[in-house]
Amino acid sequence: MKRFVSLTVGAAVLVSGCLSGCKSFGDDNAATIDGKAIAASQVTGLAKVLLANDQSQCTQALAPAQLSQYSAAQVTALQEQCQEISEAVVDSHRATGKYARQSLQLLVQFAVAEDGLRDLKETITTAERTAAASQVASLKTLSKADRGLIEEGLAAQSALQRAIVDHFDSKLGRAVLDAVYASQPSWDNLCGKGIIGLASDRAAVDAEVAKGTTIEELVATPPTGFQLLGDGGKICTPKGGTAPAEVLAGFADTSKTAIQSVEFDQAGSDATAAPTKEVVFFVAGGEQLVKRNSAEFKTLAAQSIQQAAQAAQQGGSSASSPVMPAATKLAVIKIDPRFGSGYNLTTGIVSPVEPLVPTTTTAKPTASTSTGG
Fold first, then answer.
1. Among 100, 148, 210, 315, which has the minimal tally of Cβ within 10 Å of its Cβ?
2. Is 0.85 topped by the overall pTM?
3. How far apart are the C-alpha atoms of 3 and 53, rounded to whole Å?
């Protein structure tokens, strides 16, 4: 079954306490975002839609033909999950259940994104609306109004991620840059200039190095089978980055002015592919500090945000994006106690994803399966 899932971060949320009723909210409001209300009826209405969708998807998933695709363990996990869903209710008077909380989190997140766009004087593009509609297409039980609400919210979040890179001088833009900078263990980069290729092809390069060919000459004309490192033969990787440890160690050794070579295992394209032995020939280029207010840093931040936005539009995770967390922290959010406390608001881009179980189908052995003998 499809459901809305996303990551949570510790956003500042105020849950207003009240000793005799909740008149400061009124019986019709579930929360306010910068003074603008989210109606309790809207929260419980969307919660019922999300629950109905899960129940519908469970009905389909538990059909015998569907169950036959799964292993016994997956069937058990799916049955347990669907049993919980079948027992779930949405109580408009005590709306602290899973679906009510999930609904409120979605609505708060949508409102924050839409407010952010208005502050930046930006609008949602046709492409963003189309991508949002594609994400919601699998939710079969949505009414036209609910579908429009969710599509608009998803599109607003995508639009905010896309637009913020042109507004780094705004209050939200500065907060996003602060979050990007803080997310890096160190902005001291390890740099090198050189070429990369298969270790099995290294003999020709070794011969060039032995006769005194410089790194500049190798970069200008890479031997057959080799290509330039990074951008034009130069690459800078943050300490603690994803480059192989052997390569990072070589980049760090700036005392060597001669060409170094390091071999490492490059993971295959999927889990079943064997790693490839590759080699880099390079000269360490020293450390480079990415300064907080430099143009280079803003370029790196924009690239990071855009990559997260593209991944989210394709249904992937936006765990690395700082935009919605930053926007949420700037907003003043108050939640009626009827909807619970201890919220860690959902601040990644929300998208429909496959259920947690079963995640894959497992082919069952047939009667003809034999191990020989």
1. 210
2. no
3. 8
